[in-house]
């Protein structure tokens, strides 16, 4: 399939953009071009306008992104997200600092600020059969290599090194020789904590996060916690589905496992609860990520907690105790807690017995 046909097939939302853009200098850029050439489907589209993106954004009814000095905007058309930006160049006054940004007079100038050749290609909206590829991105894509555009790239912005780990993990690409050398000299310490953290979280958000962390460690970018890589791999498997699934927090969880030593949850690893009720009492003091951490570190007893014990509920509630004459207050809680404990340990069964035990315990509490 020709480039133009691929573009139309993968991004039907471009029809609306084409109508709004007219003859204007609007380009599909970056990851969208890369993924198109790779034959990977993709949800979002990045567009660059040479001049000012505001006009096109307004025509498309896009929401402007407020904090940006140069017009950028986001719009969703037919369920597809489109990011619009004004073409710009960047100059780095200091390693790792945020760049000084100027408008770019051409799409080539905008492509020149990008991280890797495979991300530095553009397709003009008005001429969608043409690939603008000033840095040999297409050849690198075919060869499966990541190559920076200039030798100072990682000095300007060391977070690009983490981006390299992300792409290498996702696509199974290699670093080109000189890029590999430059990357080994990258110093993430020159970057603010926030930006470093954002880079790590994005790495952790990859399907191949474990491979990404392994590469980042191998390249000397990060120093994982003791056993961090092994634990991250186990965690990814554990939380993928089933009772331990943690879909929403996956990235944060993997990032923590890779980088952070064990915390308070080591108590769970060392514990040998003698009964289900003891297990519940201990485990419920920890949040789900701490439970996952303890489980991959060997607290296998937590499997039963997560599968069964955590969800054991009484058939009675506080109203039943109050109706039976227990005064409102701590006695109600004490009664219910005792009934739950006995139920968890298999000593009682059914509503009647729950009520009997709970009342006895509540009265003892109220009386004592
Ligand atoms: P993904 O598929 O992970 O979203 P993407 O290529 O769309 O990848 P973004 O982080 O959304 O990645 O960035 C969009 C584009 O902006 C990139 O393709 C790249 O050209 C450029 N870019 C982003 N971050 C940097 C950076 N730190 N330095 C240089 N160029 C960057």
List the helices and strands and how they pair.
Layout (H helix, E strand, L loop, with lengths): L2 H8 L3 H8 L4 E4 L1 H8 L5 E6 L4 H6 L3 E2 L7 E6 L2 E7 L1 E4 L8 E4 L3 H5 L10 E3 L12 H7 L1 E2 L6 H4 L2 H13 L2 E2 L1 H8 L8 H12 L4 H10 L9 H11 L11 H10 L6 H5 L5 H8 L4 H9 L5 H6 L10 H6 L6 H15 L5 H18 L1
Parallel strand pairs: 2-5, 9-10
Antiparallel strand pairs: 1-2, 1-8, 3-4, 4-5, 6-7
Helix pairs in contact: 8-10, 8-11, 10-13, 11-12, 12-13, 19-20
Bound molecules: adenosine-5'-triphosphate (ATP).
Structure description:
By secondary structure, the chain is α+β, with helices and mostly antiparallel strands. It contains 20 helices and ten strands. The protein has helices at 3-10, 14-21, 31-38, 54-59, 107-111, 137-143, 153-156, 159-171, 177-184, 193-204, 209-218, 228-238, 250-259, 266-270, 276-283, 288-296, 302-307, 318-323, 330-344, 350-367; strands at residues 26-29, 44-49, 63-64, 72-77, 80-86, 88-91, 100-103, 122-124, 145-146, 174-175. The strands form three sheets. A six-stranded mixed β-sheet has the order 3-4-5-2-1-8. A two-stranded antiparallel sheet has the order 6-7. The longest helix has 18 residues, at 350-367. The model has no long low-confidence stretch (mean pLDDT 93). The structure holds adenosine-5'-triphosphate. The site of adenosine-5'-triphosphate has 9 residues, from helix 8.
Q: Which ligands accompany this protein?
A: adenosine-5'-triphosphate
Output the structural class: alpha+beta
* CATH-defined superfamily of the largest domain: Beta Polymerase, domain 2
What count of helical segments does DSSP give? 20
